[in-house]
Design goal:
The structure holds two protein chains of two kinds.
Chain A lengths: L11 H15 L6 H26 L7 H19 L3 H20 L7 H20 L12 E2 L5 E2 L2 E2 L3 H24 L1 H11 L1 H6 L4 H27 L1 E2 L6 H14 L3 H17 L6 H16 L17 H9 L1
Antiparallel strand pairs in A: 1-4, 2-3
Chain B lengths: L1 E12 L2 E12 L3 E5 L6 H8 L7 E6 L2 E2 L5 H7 L1 E3 L12 H9 L7 H5 L3 H21 L14 H13 L5 E5 L7 H16 L3 E5 L3 H7 L2 E6 L2 E6 L1 H4 L3 H16 L1
Parallel strand pairs in B: 3-8, 3-9, 6-7, 7-8
Antiparallel strand pairs in B: 1-2, 1-4, 4-5, 9-10
Helix pairs in contact in B: 3-5, 3-6, 5-6
Classes of the chains: A mainly alpha, B alpha/beta.
The structure holds adenosine-5'-diphosphate and magnesium ion.
Chain lengths: 328, 258
């Protein structure tokens, strides 16, 4: 039954997605360690951006502070691992939960704010977190030097050290994220977020608890960003507040806006934002200029983003034929 | 039995008293019309019932319980669904998904069941789609299920809003000028739909300017002028009420202008 099928071969995009999946699976065979590292970075941004896509892409909540939740996750992992010798994977759920808790606390009083006001407040969140970390207000975050000596993760006795190991770890997580968030999007919750994005008064008026679902999107997105933070801490083995600055938030935000709402779009857009500047490295100082220019052209040429989500598919028993005729 | 009771409702905007100490009741199973000249406060009364506004004074009872101060989505859950005077569809989503919006509050799947695509969630989703298609059949829009909501003709958009409201299993539907902008054919289809809603045992409260329509389908009329109740009763009696004739003659010129 196509209602439950993940792959729909009547949609051309499916071929693109499958090809992309295969390419990602075999890519490390053709890349050196440097480029594999770049791809790990793209994967991390992709996970982060997919989690922001739930908040910004699906629900239309203008949240520009996502790096704050990434930071919380990374720090929880770093602290539990270096101080309490927790294994990296064991810290992951806690990193997610901590980020989700912070999100719940900060979002509760501001979630009802209008788009532009909310944007400003969320920018504040990331700065508050960064400043708190820099000044070591909790006494366990190592100030501006951060935390170093984070252990390598182990997967059933297998030590994840090399770039290629991280490549499969990060992209494996990314694949799981794609699947779970795709299913979320297909559900009543995904729809509720879209109703809110389209017209929150109408959504509330038809029985959707707007505040509840906005919070849910926010907390879920933060949970995921926290888990991505775990992977980041494990990959870097050293983390510092400077890695979670406002610019990071802006990049993730831009990735999602450029993507236009679909998950495939987020992948493509993560590559464009993280991979392309590396490819353009020869141009050295001019590359950010090229990049900025390309973004501007994109936004004028395709203001709806690269790939807006396709309509959800529904299997309508007897109607599907009649519907086709109606269209013809 | 009274399904809805509005008691001493007042709503004030700045200095303007939009609704003034209003009392009326809606009997279960009836079609009740709320009428009055433009700006009389009809839409404001609806918004106070549905939780979009909180009245400054007075109370609203639904099935004997006060619903004042509840949020709109909770009031929908209790069984009052509405349509908007200015159509508020999700214009970029499909016709079917617009109706599913109304069904949302009757579905249970949480975010875990949804993310994991559990069998219970899939079953619920299938049933919801089936149910919403029935509502689309009911208003005659089933063939358009995959069109974008905003692409429908004006009259069809009004019907789609009604289907969306019905999908929430309401006990009372509140329609704000459902015939607004409809041609004669569409209006007579609408009359049939409203009649069919009542036959399903759903109570209807509607605002309408089209007096012929109101006289034809309402069991009871509540007449408002400047936020104040000026008449209440069966259509045949109300239309002969001097105060009502006065209010309507006074506003007829206005209606010409609009
Ligand atoms: N949100 C609002 N803020 C201020 N004034 C309002 C608001 N809504 C309605 N009004 C005023 O209240 C009065 C009644 O409006 P309304 O309920 O829309 O009338 P009706 O639906 O009977 O035409 C009008 O004078 C209108 O200008
Ligand atoms: Mg009105």
């Amino acid at each position: 039954m196509s209602q439950s099928a993940f792959l729909d071969f009547s949609d051309k995009r499916t071929y693109g997605a499958v090809a992309m999946g295969l390419l990602i699976a075999v890519l490390p065979l053709f890349l050196n360690a440097y480029w594999i590292d770049v791809c790990v970075s793209i994967g991390l941004y992709a996970i982060l951006s997919l989690s922001l896509n739930v908040i910004l892409g699906h629900a239309g909540i203008f949240h520009m502070g996502h790096a704050a939740f990434y930071a919380v996750g990374a720090y929880v992992t770093a602290i539990l691992n270096t101080m309490y010798q927790w294994s990296i994977f064991a810290t992951m759920p806690l990193a997610g939960l901590a980020a989700a808790l912070v999100a719940l606390l900060v979002a509760r009083p501001i979630i009802h704010l209008r788009g532009d006001y909310l944007l400003i407040v969320t920018v504040g969140i990331v700065e508050i977190v960064r400043i708190a970390l820099t000044n070591d207000v909790f006494g366990i975050t190592g100030g501006s030097n951060g935390i170093f000596g984070i252990a390598r993760p182990r997967f059933f006795g297998f030590r994840i050290v090399k770039s290629v190991h991280f490549y499969y770890l990060v992209w494996g997580m990314c694949a799981a994220t794609l699947l779970l968030f795709h299913w979320l999007w297909r559900s009543r919750i995904g729809r509720a977020l879209n109703y809110i994005k389209e017209d929150d008064v109408a959504a509330e008026g038809c029985g959707v608890d707007v505040t509840h679902y906005k919070l849910m999107a926010f907390v879920l997105g933060a949970f995921w960003a926290g888990m991505a933070g775990t992977l980041y801490a494990a990959k870097m083995t050293t983390i510092a507040p400077a890695s979670f600055n406002f610019m990071e938030s802006v990049i993730i935000f831009a990735v999602v806006i450029l993507a236009g709402g679909s998950q495939l779009g987020v992948l493509v857009s993560s590559f464009l934002f993280i991979g392309l500047p590396e490819l353009l490295r020869e141009f050295s100082s001019a590359r950010m200029l090229c990049f900025g220019l390309a973004m501007m052209i994109m936004m004028v040429w395709r203001p709806q983003g690269l790939m807006p989500p396709r309509p959800r598919r529904y299997r309508i028993p007897d109607r599907s034929k009649a519907g086709e005729e109606g269209k013809a | 039995m009274n399904l809805l009771e509005v008691e001493g409702m007042s709503k004030i905007f700045g200095g303007l008293v939009a609704v003034n100490d209003l009392d009326f009741t809606v009997e279960e199973g009836a079609v009740v019309g709320l009428i009055g000249p433009n700006g009389a406060g009809k839409t404001t009364v609806f918004n106070c019932i549905t939780g979009n506004y909180v009245p400054e004074r007075g109370d609203v009872h639904f099935q004997g319980k006060s619903i004042k101060g509840l949020k709109p989505h909770s009031i929908v859950e209790l069984g009052i669904a509405r349509t908007f005077q200015t159509i508020r569809l999700f214009s970029r989503l499909s016709v079917l998904e617009n109706v599913l919006a109304g069904r949302h509050c009757r579905l249970k799947s949480g975010f875990l069941a949804s993310m994991l695509h559990l069998p219970s969630q899939r079953r619920e989703e299938r049933d919801a789609v089936e149910r919403c298609m029935q509502e689309l059949e009911f208003v005659g829009l089933a063939n358009a299920w995959r069109e974008e909501g905003g692409s429908l003709a004006y009259g069809s958009q009004r019907l789609l809003e009604i289907a969306r409201a019905l999908a929430s299993d309401p006990k009372l539907v509140i329609l704000d000028e459902p015939a607004g902008g409809m041609n004669d054919q569409e209006t007579s289809d609408l009359v049939n739909v409203i009649e069919a809603i009542r036959k399903r045992g759903i109570t209807v409260l509607l605002i309408e300017h089209d007096m012929r329509l109101v006289m034809k389908i309402c069991h009871k009329l509540v007449v408002l002028e400047h936020g104040t109740l000026i008449a209440e009763g069966v259509p045949d009696v109300v239309r002969r009420d001097p105060a009502v004739i006065e209010a309507y003659l006074g506003s007829d010129d206005n209606d010409e202008v609009y």
